[in-house]
Write a structure and sequence with these properties.
Blueprint: H1 65-73, H2 89-99, H3 112-141, H4 148-156, H5 180-193, H6 195-204, H7 208-225, H8 243-246, H9 249-258, H10 264-272
């Protein structure tokens, strides 16, 4: 439906460097993420990642363990449902042994229950963070009560083919998944694995599953703000518990896989520059 509201994907979008919250004082991938209530403050090899989410651990996690698990979960793993699939026990053990100090290598089985519970909890938090970021971005674009044109625009985004959404394109200079709402949402993955490490990771293993979660989170945000929604955002479930969103996973995966060449450097670079405290421009999606 045509309307006067500028498309959320117009050119000229500005991404401001927000000063990444990554506190690195030792070797290996490390980060301090205070946005989601999880901090990984690493002071050297083999030291414990101090996290409010892992205070009940009976063993200190190896340096960089949680970011490494999240990076693996965010990769293209050849599975249309990979965005919701946790790494296998074998993969977790490999990360544990690779990052642990010598006196902890091969001792995974001693702490398997605690480590597995922590991994599940951290991956759920990571996935839900995409949903929170997409809602935040949309609320910044459309604060308060929607006027008629804004409501029509949001309703248009919930109709028809998933691949036709304006919010996934930036016309005419740039391309697929280079709009600011994508950058704002995808930035959760960058924060989770560490800004200093993300460039190395995407060049070696494309973060397709993280990009699929980005699409799903944006779809859910538009749906919750649409006039046909029966739930308000405050009443909605988190992304990982949203069954309606999960039904779109295969479709989102196919959209990403059909693109001949994804400009990962641009997508990741924009996500790194997102200023979480600044309102997005009026042409952000």
């Amino acid at each position: 439906m045509a309307h006067a509201n500028p498309p959320l994907t117009g050119p000229g979008n500005n991404f401001n460097n927000r000063g990444n919250q990554f506190n690195n004082t030792g070797s290996g991938p490390q980060n301090a993420n205070t946005d989601r209530g999880v901090q990984y403050n690493n002071t050297g090899p083999g030291t414990q990642n101090n996290s409010s989410k892992v205070d009940d651990m009976k063993v200190p996690l190896p340096e960089g363990f949680v970011p490494a698990v999240i990076e693996l979960a965010g990769r293209d793993r050849g599975d249309p449902n990979g965005a919701w699939t946790d790494p296998t026990s074998e993969e977790i053990v490999e990360i544990w042994n690779r990052l642990s100090p010598l006196d902890m290598v091969n001792k995974f089985l001693y702490y398997k229950k605690d480590i597995t519970e922590t991994v599940t909890r951290e991956l759920t938090t990571w996935r839900n963070s995409f949903g929170e970021a997409a809602i935040k971005a949309l609320n910044l674009k459309f604060p308060g009560k929607l006027n008629r044109e804004d409501q029509e625009y949001i309703d248009d985004q919930t109709r028809g083919n998933l691949a036709d959404r304006e919010c996934y394109y930036l016309y005419p200079e740039s391309g697929f998944l280079q709009s600011p709402i994508v950058a704002e949402t995808f930035s959760e993955h960058v924060k989770a694995i560490g800004s200093n490490s993300v460039d190395q990771f995407w060049k070696e293993n494309e973060p397709t599953s993280a990009l699929v979660l980005t699409i799903l989170a944006i779809e859910r945000a538009f749906r919750l703000r649409s006039s046909s929604s029966t739930n308000s955002i405050s009443q909605s479930r988190e992304l990982s518990s949203d069954e309606e969103t999960q039904k779109l996973t295969s479709a989102a995966f196919e959209i990403v896989k059909k693109v001949p060449k994804i400009e990962w450097e641009i997508i990741v670079g924009a996500a790194k520059k997102v200023d979480e405290s600044a309102a997005l421009p009026r042409t952000f999606a």
